[in-house]
Amino acid sequence: MKKNILILLCFTTLFVKAQKSQIESAALYFNNAEMEDAKKSIDAAFEHPDTKDNVKMLYFRAAIYDTIATSKDPKVRALDIDAAEKWALAAKRGLELDKKDIYRSELEYNIVNAAFACNSAAYEANQRGNYAKVQSYYQIVIDLLPFDKNNDMKENNLTEKSIVFNQFYFANKEKNNADQKKYLKRLIELDYKDHMIYGYLTNIYLEEGDTTTAVTYLEKGRELYPEKKDLIGQEINLYIAQNKLDVLLQKVELANEQKPDDADLVYTRGNLYDNFGNSYKEKIKKGREEIKAASKKASLEKNPAAKKQLETKVKEMNATLNELQKKQTSFLTKAEADYFKAIDLNPDLIDAYYNLGALTNNKTAAIADIINNIDAKTQAEYDKRFAALKKVQDSIYNVAIEQFLKVEDIAMARSEKTTDDKILKYTYLKDVYFSLQLIYAGKNNEAKSTEYRAKKEEMIMKIKKK
Question: Rounded to whole angstroms, how far apart are CA atoms 330 and 324?
């Protein structure tokens, strides 16, 4: 039994020596620039449990894979597509185990170069379409940062912030939401100064249906970067989607206080005022109809007490209607002022011109109501009052026409380079021609109305062809 144990021990000793000879062979092949054989020998030593943590082996493994990764000879580089990774991991493990500092100075120098090689290898992995390898390489670079004693990586902008941003960039390209969130949150922890971190997180959580978390990140971004238009725009769209127009108006008014000369923000506020003003239309219309019915009922009532009660109700209804009209007028007046201001700030702001034209044109509706309710005893009296009102209405139409023609001018100057450009241009023209068609119909100018109807149909056909 003792003899067998002795034999076994001898074989074990011989095998360990054999593995250590692999290290010596690798060193010899390496020094003679025989890289394929050097790789085979060092791989054998690395894979064996008795030498996988041998510091000398790790030193030569790093040196061998350094040479493979950085060789100008394509044949040498082709020996291992992941040479940079193996180089970096060998240098890192060697430093961790080199307690006697035998190879420390060489490995510390070596590890910085390995980090830059892995950073480049991440881009190459992306070109191969290997997303997992991209992220693996970047993680290796992050793991090597603590070994950068002389700040060589930092001085060359190889920092955790820059690397994690690259990780996010490729996760975004891959549309990997889980990784995007992970890297964006890490950037926040690292105090990465970019407001769009919060914008991206907001969009991802909205895409996933988590509005609560989306709002949390958006509000945090707006708090840190109150002047950034991207976040302001996101906030506006978010509250529009939630139909929280009252909250949105407060946010937009605050944004305008922060950036009073921003044409887009001024236009957005005007658009909100416009929407609020138009939201009273149905209430006002309904109120008028109810007042008309109640007034008729009161006039027919024979009972004095009941008649008085109905007349009191009509007065109250009129008071309510007046309040609604005041609020509508206030919002529309503010909207008009903002549209004019936005145009002053940006004379090519096509949406401001279009909305201004629509707002101006809508003013004719009130005059049309008065015309439709002219109460005249004679035809002559009716004609006189009608002519006066029609003159005012036509003057408003003329202003609206000028504003819509400006929309046409701006639209005609737009690019047609791409299909999207063409569709957008033709859509603006279609809408403005339709508006002009209706205005000229209101002016009883059938020839001009027909002209713009034809132009509108032409744009519709162009859009369909795209």
Answer: 10
207, amino acid identity: E
pLDDT digits (tens, 9 = 90+) for 368-420: 988 988 888 899 999 899 999 999 999 999 999 999 999 999 999 999 999 98
Yes or no: say if 166 and 122 are a contact pair by the CB < 8 Å rule: yes
Task: Name every residue whose Cβ is closer than 8 Å to that of residue 210 and which is 6 or more positions away in sequence.
Answer: none
- Examine the domain organization and report whether 308 and 332 are in the same domain: yes
Q: What's the token pair of residue 124?
A: 């190459």
Instruction: Report the Cα–Cα distance between both ends of the chain, in Å, rounded.
Output: 91
Say yes or no: 337 and 390 in one domain: no
Closest C-alpha among 342, 365, 364, 367 to residue 354: 342
Tens-place pLDDT, residues 278-289: 888 889 989 989
Check: CB of residue 35 under 8 Å from CB of residue 76: yes
The answer to whether position 176 is within a domain reads: no
Q: Are 335 and 270 in contact, with CB atoms under 8 Å apart? A: yes
The answer to whether residues 265 and 229 touch, using CB atoms and an 8 Å cutoff, is: yes
The one-letter amino acid at 380: A
- Residue 128 belongs to a domain with what CATH number? 1.25.40
Whether residues 80 and 127 share a domain: the answer is yes
Q: Which amino acid appears at position 335 of this protein?
A: A
Planar angle of CA 326, 329, 330, nearest 5 degrees: 85
435 contacts: CB under 8 Å, gap ≥ 6:
357, 358, 361, 400, 404
Q: Is 159 helix (H, G, I), strand (E, B) or coil?
A: coil
For residue 253, CA distances in Å to 75, 240, 247, 271 come to: 65, 15, 10, 12
Rounded Cα distance, 232 and 253, in Å: 11
Rounded to 5 degrees, what are φ and ψ at 357? Answer: -60, -40
**CB distance 22 to 51 below 8 Å:** yes
The two structure tokens encoding residue 360: 């101006």
3-state DSSP percent of the chain in helix, strand and coil, to 5: 80, 0, 20
Is 379 inside any structural domain? yes
pTM above 0.85, yes or no: no
Burial of 249 (0-12, 13-18, 19+ CB in 10 A): middle
| CB 393 within 8 Å of CB 379 | no
User: Which tokens is 70 given?
Assistant: 């950085």
Residue 277, domain extent = 263-347
